[in-house]
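INFO batch 0412 | record 1 of 1 | parsing
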Amino acid sequence: MIKGMTGFGSAQFVWGKIRVVVEVKSLNHRYFDIAYYLPGGFSSIENKIQQLAQRHIERGRVTVSVKIAHKPTQEIVLNKDIVRKYLRYAQELSREFRLENDLRISDIVRLPGTVETRESFLDPVEAWPTLEKCLQKSFKALEQMRQREGRGLAADVTDKLKKMRGQIRQIKARSQAVLKEKRQELSVEEFQSFQKGCDVNEEMSRLAHYIDEAGRLLKSSSSAGKKMDFIAQEMQREANTIGSKLQDKIVINAVVALKSKIEKIREQAQNIE
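INFO prediction complete | emitting tokens
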């Protein structure tokens, strides 16, 4: 069954004290196109994310967002090795120059490098296996939404194809009636010329073929949007030819109705993957 191109999926995971939210969404686009909104330092895994996305999506504009939703407060770290060095140097100065060693704790913590503030860090390489599972879950949810949209699109296009078949039957019946009328009105030579000029059997046969092809495409599991658009263009061409060849009010009205449905099918093709 065909799929649409609009979808959304999200998931989240906890890495240490960090909560990470992953969101993926897709919109209509002629080709596959992907954009990233990632934390700093994550550009190294963009190619992995793209490969993962293309397993689920053939066509559409895809946005992948990885957000650090919760960071713990900054941690205060006492660098004891630095403190020991300061104290050792202070003792050496005190002995060598006979100075009073009056260092206090408040003095020590103000010395450069003794106290640092650090933020929790999310390494993209280490976190990738967990992030990949989260992305898989998000893409699966997105794909399910696209499948639901595809079912709605298929139902709409199927209804239009069914009505188009009815209009083709109407044109066939009317073309036969027109020929019967003209046979009585025209001479043999005039009728033969008229019959040759208004023969639309070939065009109607091709149009019926394209309708059947479109019906088969709706059941396709692969990307079908571009093919559907091409078929709709060919349908439009055949309908135009029928309207120009057979100048009859009933036929022209049927052709107008055909072209209206074909145009709507072309519009829907822009929503099909």
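INFO post-check: Strands lie at 7-15, 18-27, 32-37, 60-70, 75-78, 115-118.
INFO record closed
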